[in-house]
Amino acid sequence: MQTPRVVRVLAAWLLALMLTVAGFTAAVVMLNSGLYGPEQQVREYLAALKDGDGALAVGLLNAAVPDADAALLDGPALERGAAAVDRVRVQEPVETADGRVDVPVTYSIGGAEHTTSFPLEETGTRWLFFSRWEFVPSTLPTVEVSMSNLNEAELNGSRVALPEGRGTFASFYPVEVEGRFDGEYFAAPAQAVPVTGRTGTPSMALPASATERLTRAVDAEIREFLDGCAAQTVFQPTNCPFNFQTDQRLAGEISWSITDYPAIRIEPHDGQWVIAPLAGTARLDTRLQDLFTGAVSNVTARRPFEFSAQLRIDGSGITVSPVVNY
Questions:
Q1: How do residues 204-233 score in pLDDT, each as one tens digit?
Q2: How many CB atoms sit inside 10 A of residue 177's CB?
Q3: What string of DSSP letters covers 150-204?
Q4: Distance in angstroms (rounded) separating the CA atoms of residues 227 and 223
Q5: Which residues neighbour 168 within 8 Å (Cβ) at sequence distance 6 or greater?
Q6: Has domain 4-139 been given CATH number 3.30.70?
Q7: Which of 144, 211, 319, 326 is 20 to 30 A removed from 118 (C-alpha atoms)?
Q8: What global pTM score does this model have?
């Protein structure tokens, strides 16, 4: 027969055991919903993006890499893309009909709000008690980048090739892809697109144009050509776009000057960079004698002109070849 003391001891041990089991169960539940929950996998994936660790990120995401340029998938380019993602909030998981869960993540890129849902599935347990969650297998999205007449660009700070002006780049998400080009003679201002999910193919067209340096260089060549024409003291300067015709006799010096130089526009055309048609005005000052009356008069004539010029760029060298059609 048990004594009251023994009963109290057994009761105390039983209560302690029940509290221990309850505490352990609560700890398991808490860890499964926190440290070992699906949200933690998402947090680890997002942290890998911030760290520029593409190998870890692609492993965590359980994603296949498409047949595309991988320049955005690691290192500084990935870090820069992920750094543009602000105000990240990982939400509670939502059960789906197939037994999986979606973990919504809200964030902003460039001031615009976005939400991306990450599908995960339970694939087993860790140490018998803790759930193992993995991302549902997927394929990384791609970004299409194009730029007229140039075969390279800068994406998230990394130089990339654009064969024939186009390229397809694999990307993680959520990130921002910023493209630009800063060259000696051509440039494209920064453009950016957000990549927010597995589906869709964001595209970016970089508007390349001639730099001020190239425009000034071409302008100087055109002015030098026209000034050379104006230096000729004849009515029809050789290989020049302007002339003067008269049936009167020359009675003084011939003086040409350029009053309006052409505005220089360099544009893409058929895979090349071309100088747009050129137009300006020349002025002639001279003295002419009327053949019938013998009267001599001062003559000032404005001669509008048009011509074209070919542009060739060889490394850092620029060649401008005026083309005059009579």
A1: 999 999 999 999 999 999 999 999 999 999
A2: 22
A3: -SEEEETTEEEE-GGGEEEEE--SSEEEEEEEE-SSEEEEEEEEEE-SSSS--EE
A4: 6
A5: 68, 69, 142, 143, 144, 145
A6: no
A7: 144
A8: 0.80
